[in-house]
Amino acid sequence: MSLTYHLQIVNLLAALLLLISFAMLSQRRIAGLITLFAWQGAALTASTALVAWSTGQHHLYYTAALTLVLKVIAMPWYFFRIVKKLDVDRDVEPMINIPTTMLIGIVLVIFAFNLALPISELSGTVTRSTLGIALATVLLAFLMMITRSKAIPQVIGFLAMENGLFFAATSATYGMPLVVELGVALDVMVGVFVLSIFFFQIRETFDSLDLKHMEKLKER
Amino acid sequence: MEIYWLLGIPLTGGIFLALWGCRKHSPEINALFSLLTLLAAALLTHRIIENGPMTVGGGWFFIDSFNVFLVALTAFVAFTTALFSRPYMRIEAEHGKLNDKRLRLYHSSYQIFIAAMLLALTTNNMGILWVAMEAATLATVLLVSLYRTPASLEAAWKYFILCGVGIALALFGTILLYFAAEKVLGSGGTALLWTHLDGVKTELEPTVLSLAFVFLLVGYGTKVGLAPLHSWLPDAHAEGPTPVSAVLSGLLLNVALYAVMRSKVLVDGALGNEMAGNLMMGFGLFSVVLAAFLIKRQTDVKRMFAYSSIEHMGLITFAFGMGGAVANFAALLHMTMHSLTKSAIFFAVGHATQKAGTQLMGDIRGLIKTNPTIGWGLMLGTIAILGVPPFGVFASEFLIITTAMHDHPWATPFLLLALGVAFASIFGKVQPMVFGETELPKLPYQPALAPVFLHLGLVLMLGLFIPPYLANWYRQAAQLLGG
């Protein structure tokens, strides 16, 4: 009985994750986007910890702690610092208007649920119904990357995608082996570091972080 | 033991060169570390030939004939590229394109990149394979933007984002793979070990694995440069420094394809049908044809050869997709030939563009007059990559096409058409570069052309005669891939 109770909370958190993804799609300001990203990380941490507690998979606690430190504290703080340093917190102009993006998002969610359906049925874990949500989060983050033209929103989209993948790993399989998760976390950290060097380079060269300046390399 | 040397040497090299900074002998130290890596690879190869496949380090590393051949190739090309980059980067610094700080970044990242690729090749864990592939991307992103020109920044950004998305899809594929494996092998660290998965592949859930393979193929396929996910590749190759183009084209693409093949073996076992092979054939053929027609439109020499890489990787993917002993053999042979030839071409092209001060083919003329070795190197390399006998590329392409005629006749006209178009356009563009009239000045340093002729010599030798033990080695590797 208590398992179903936990299950309900995990499902609630999954729904929250999806909701935050939609909120990110509609967010116009970079600062708001970073805050939402931190909240998404928090929801992920909570659901991972809950799955760890209810199933007795202790290594998931490490994953939860890692997510908390990296995605709720370190990265948002770092992004806020970059935004302040580069002074880029102005409106983010999406390339497609927001209502259209939301509609495309809904279609993606339906697609993700259909794709995950046969696999969810096979899953023996308590959290199987959340696989569809994880896939939807990945696709929505992908959509955000496509529709934004500024550098920082694209990177946040990339990290939100990573969030979706982590959620898929915990929900479908109770997490990957720890060494793999550590490796993935390391890669993400190095990636963010490399990107921040990149931001400064782009800024120095183009005097802006708008990627619209970067459309020279096309097939003629 | 050799395996720890193999991974430890480039990693130490990367850290050492980062701390040492750019002093007078940094390029030599870079080459020295690459030479030591090559020696470690040679020892490892020797061990495998003597004793057969083995797992090392409590099952964390797995070496068989398939990956040891790529390890040897990777270490070899990494070494020759380090030799080439020694004078090349000096000339770039002389031209004021680079400063000491960037050279330090270059040398350090170069070694880390090699270490990441070798880890990807030798690890037994599909998760670590993913981690290493991502690390290899991260190590090269800042190398692509080394010149800090607007175009190079754009190329590096595109490289990062496209490969990042691709590799994220591959991670989802890996999660699905783990999801299927966990049911059979139980949860924990061993469920992602390839050797364990290979042992139980027939019991893995087919629906999950087929979905996993789609994600893995699209994900790693982005790094292989398969169309329509190839668009990062020409930009990264054209805008980065030439030694980086050479290792990206000659090595990274192979390693990504290696990851796809490891997955394919598992999926084939689980599904028992041709699904994985058909997908690979489709992507491969599309890449060959698309790249061949895009080659025709290029004006930048490095871009043109980057498209040629897409074409050849497509051809190899197609051959692996056909499967069977002969096609796998041909694909492995073509992998070797393409790596050696393409990196040799990039070496020659690198010096040619330095001489001319431009990458536009229209402005590079008469190499044979001002510097015969560069001219001949470029001409012979081009002839080799276009598959003219007696070079080795001819042998592998011939095998691939005859197998295609036999097993999948519908694909042959597309392949022949694409190869014909590529031949006409590349040859037509390189010929005036080599033989036209010119007044170009000499280079300040003696260019390093020994690697070019070493590579081309090997390709020529393999085209005329494949030593029996090498042929045997390829055959074993082809067998492992389900021949």
Name the descriptors.
A: mainly alpha, 79% helix, globular, B: 483 residues, mainly alpha, 19 helices
Structure commentary:
The complex is a heterodimer of chains A (220) and B (483). Helix content of chain A is 79%, strand content 0%. Chain A has 220 residues and is mostly helical. Chain A has one domain. In chain A, helix 4 runs antiparallel to helix 5 (131-147). Chain A is globular and about 55 Å long. Chain A starts with a helix and ends in a 14-residue tail after the last helix. Chain B has a domain at 274-483. Chain B has a two-stranded antiparallel ribbon with strand order 1-2. Chain B contains 19 helices and 2 strands. At the A-B interface, helix 4, helix 5, helix 6 and helix 7 of A face helix 5, helix 6 and helix 8 of B.
Structural class of chain A: mainly alpha
Number of strands of chain A: 0
Q: Over all CA atoms, what is the radius of gyration of chain B? A: 21 Å
Helical percentage of chain A: over 70%
Q: Please, what is the average pLDDT of chain B?
A: 89
Strand order of the largest sheet of chain B: 1-2
Give the low-pLDDT segments of chain A. none
Large-scale geometry of chain B: globular
Please summarize what this structure is:
Chain A has 220 residues and is mainly alpha-helical. Chain A has seven helices and no strands. Chain B has a domain at 274-483.
